[in-house]
Write the structure tokens for this entry.
Amino acid sequence: MRLRNGLAVMILLAMAPVAPAPAQSANLWRVSGAISGRNFNMDCRLEPASGVCTQVQTNKAQPLVSFAQSGNRMNWSLKTRVAFLSITVAFDGHVSGERMSGTMTAAGRSGTFTAVRR
């Protein structure tokens, strides 16, 4: 009887759902910056094929148009719409540990940004 109860417990444990590990990626960043007097915050997944940045305020996602990383340099761009215009926003960052800082350009204007790995 005892052996059968122990076997039943082992079978139940084997069938129990396993909680997935929290998603962690070295490619997830919270990006904050300003350009032409406008502040922004984005959550970005910086990856070559499936990268995307999502505006924190509007939850609007923009896929990356380009992405490159070399050593501690990271460059990416995305397209966004301002009024009726489609503009490309380009980022050039320097990674130092869990932080990044750099410059950005869009439609002839420039700004700065900082980012923290999430």
User: Anything to note?
Assistant: Residues 2-15 form the longest helix (14 residues). Helices lie at 2-15. Confidence is low (pLDDT under 50) at residues 1-24.
